[in-house]
Amino acid sequence: MALTGALFSGVSGVNANGNALNVIGDNIANINTAGFKATRSVFFDLLSADVGGTKVGRGSRFAAAQRLFTQGSVETTNSPTDLAIQGRGFFVVQDDNNTKFYTRAGQFAVNKDGLLVDPQGLKVQGYKLSTTGSQLTSLTDIDLNTRSLIQPTPTTGIKIALNLDAGATTPAVALPTDAAGTHDQPSDWFDNSNFSTLLTVYDSLGKGHDLTFLFRKSATANEWDYRVLANSGDITGGTAGELQQVNAAGGKLVFKSDGSLDLTNSVIKDITMASPTGWADGSADQTIKAADIHFDGSTQVSLGSAAVALSQDGLQSATITGIRIGTDGIVTGLFSSGQAVPLYRVAMADFASPEGLNHIGNTLYSESTESGAALTGVPGTGSLGTVLSGAIELSNVDLATEFVKMVTTQRGFQASSRTISVTDSLLEEIANLKR
């Protein structure tokens, strides 16, 4: 009975170490598989038997192959659609049946339909963004094709920060008539002003129009009159080569004694291009409300007049020429107009127990009861790591460690085999006792 137990103990060792060699072989075979996570063998001893009043084990068994989700090293590829995760988390991909899978392998590309996909054609999931970067949708395919032509957005808001020289003198000649629609030669405007700056705004068709902000120091201390002028040739019925006023009755900036802007007493007027004197290109009437024209941060000190910051919220139509992806997962479209517009944000997921995920091959995992439900979010939030564009995460297999394990596992296999052969010899001796 004891010898038979030794025989089966040897067999259990052969089986356990054989399975462990399979694990080691799989790790080594995937040394160059992007996003692959190494597996380690877990052994348990078998239930012991009572032999002569002493508990004797009955061998070992291969209990589990435990996946190790440690960080792999990162390889630079310079392809902007290749993504590596630094920290916890998985990319979310989806098949045509809307089944979600999770992966650390970020070898992504744009397919013929403009979708961001993995090498198997599974669609990378993310969140669609507005042009200001706010989230518009729940999880969706990252579709770069539908935004290849950016739709124009007319300008509705303007921000200007500038310094107007406190030492400037008031021009001797007044500006042309202070009324919307006044147009005259550029010299009549510029020769009788102290400072001007240019800002391009966009109409509903995406066409840009240059607006000239003209500033003239008033005879009243700490006050500046300003006008907003457009190229008269851009306006219906206008005359090419002239400048036309587009802010009714002009406007006024008032400054305090310390040089800061006095918003309470300043007078800001709407900028209006409406029928019958709207834009000549047939675009919709356009009005930039006074409440959306901001001169915050402007000053009047004894330095040369200069524009400090100019911005507006309109977009011209343009075609996409490339993308970039930040560490926060925001996919930004780079357009022929020079604009950079946020399009999507890559989604990521984490699990309470990643080791409990179902490994279904092709570096893909699926949710299980042992892993817990997917905690979906965006890179850099909660427990989720960040992403690195133009790089992929390599396998975390340590080849030196695997070779050492191979040697020890091979010896364990040989020793278990030897146990079987020795036990067989002893059983043969027992069988020969009857001779």
Can you offer a commentary on this structure?
This protein has 435 residues and is α+β, with helices and mostly antiparallel strands. Helices cover 15% and strands 34% of the residues. It has three helices and 33 strands. The longest helix has 33 residues, at 399-431. The mean pLDDT is 90.
Give the helix/strand class: alpha+beta
Bin the strand percentage.
25-35%
- Uncertain spans, ≥5 residues at pLDDT below 50? none
| Major sheet details | 12 strands, antiparallel
Note the gap between the termini.
21 Å
How much helical structure, as a percent, in the residues? 10-25%
Can you tell me the CATH class of the largest domain? Mainly Beta
Mean pLDDT, to the nearest integer, reads 90
Shape category: rod-shaped
> What is the H level of CATH, i.e. the homologous superfamily of the largest domain?
Flagellar hook protein FlgE
The value of Rg in angstroms is 37 Å
Instruction: Give the second-level CATH assignment, the architecture of the largest domain.
Output: Sandwich
Keywords, please?
435 residues; alpha+beta; Tick-borne Encephalitis virus Glycoprotein, domain 1; 3 domains; twelve-stranded antiparallel β-sheet; 3 helices; 33 strands; 34% strand
Write the layout of secondary structure elements.
Blueprint: H1 2-29, E1 39-45, E2 49-51, E3 54-56, E4 60-67, E5 74-76, E6 83-86, E7 90-94, E8 100-103, E9 109-110, E10 116-117, E11 123-128, E12 140-141, E13 149-150, E14 158-163, E15 183-184, H2 186-190, E16 195-202, E17 208-217, E18 223-231, E19 243-245, E20 251-254, E21 271-273, E22 286-288, E23 293-294, E24 306-312, E25 318-325, E26 330-335, E27 340-346, E28 348-350, E29 358-361, E30 364-366, E31 375-377, E32 386-389, E33 391-393, H3 399-431
